[in-house]
Amino acid sequence: MTDVGTTVLDGHVGLLEIRRGPDNFFDVPLLAALLDGCARLTQEGCRAVVLASEGKHFCAGADYAQGDPGEGPELFDLAYLLFEQPLPMVAAVQGAAVGGGLGLALVADIRVAAPQARFSAAFARLGISHGFGLTLTLPALVGQQAAFDLLYTGRRVPGEEAHRLGLVDHLAPVDALRDRAIAVAGEIASSAPLAVASIRATMRRPLLDGLRTALAHERAEQQRLKHTDDAREGIAAMAERRRPAFTGQ
């Protein structure tokens, strides 16, 4: 079984499924597979795509306990290409969307989540800076002050609060989550495809124009901070399931 599966559904909707359950950690090969999956679904005539995951969590971010998720430049370049791919995307979020997993959820145009979902920009709890374009995507959804709160604290935001904040567009019971996301994607796919493509390209142009600069800065800061004592302590504390003791070194 591959780490990413693609299925063409009725109504010109494609399903792009991460198959690394239960946690669905991401790394460079997974992002490359997601990008390839988007290309396949585009070639097969899909007009909208649902990004979903098998298992307990949507994406628990990078598995730092198992090492670096991949070289910074390549990972961040793939992140940009995922934002740039042409299909309107609806994310179906169950369980955790943490760190880079939150960034991946925000690649989508629309998010459907279960009340049990939880979102966390947990980078500062690992001793590193944020990535995956969250510099731009997070404030655009929740506002600058709420983005500061989420990034500084790394706190967990449950599905219902995420909906109130604007991180989530629709709530659905976990057993109906994927069907709801497919229905939302189906509504998009039923509109005139050339018009939808034009609208998406126009609406996302300011984001894409700013992303290269934002991603380059995020990448540089992550590379700088991951060699600090605080980053080593944050990653060790995560692996040992304890509260980190940061020193500012």
Overall SS class: alpha/beta
Estimate the global geometry from the Cα principal axes. Answer: globular
What is the H-and-E element order?
EEHEHEEHEEHHEHEHHH
Helix proportion range: 40-55%
How would you portray this structure in words?
It is a single chain. The protein has 249 residues and is of the alpha/beta class. It has a domain at 4-174: Alpha-Beta Complex (2-enoyl-CoA Hydratase, Chain A, domain 1). It is built from nine helices and nine strands. It has a six-stranded mixed β-sheet with strand order 1-2-3-4-6-9, with helices on both faces. It has a three-stranded mixed β-sheet with strand order 5-7-8. Helix 1 runs parallel beside helix 2 and helix 2 runs antiparallel to helix 8 (193-225). The longest helix has 33 residues, at 193-225. The termini are far apart.
Can you lay out the helices and strands and say which pair or pack?
Blueprint (H helix, E strand, L loop, with lengths): L3 E6 L3 E6 L9 H16 L4 E6 L18 H13 L4 E5 L2 E3 L1 H6 L4 E4 L4 E3 L13 H9 L1 H10 L3 E2 H7 L4 E2 L5 H13 L3 H33 L3 H12 L9
Parallel strand pairs: 2-3, 3-4, 4-6, 5-7, 6-9
Antiparallel strand pairs: 1-2, 7-8
Task: Provide a short characterization of the protein structure.
The chain has 249 residues and is an alpha/beta fold.
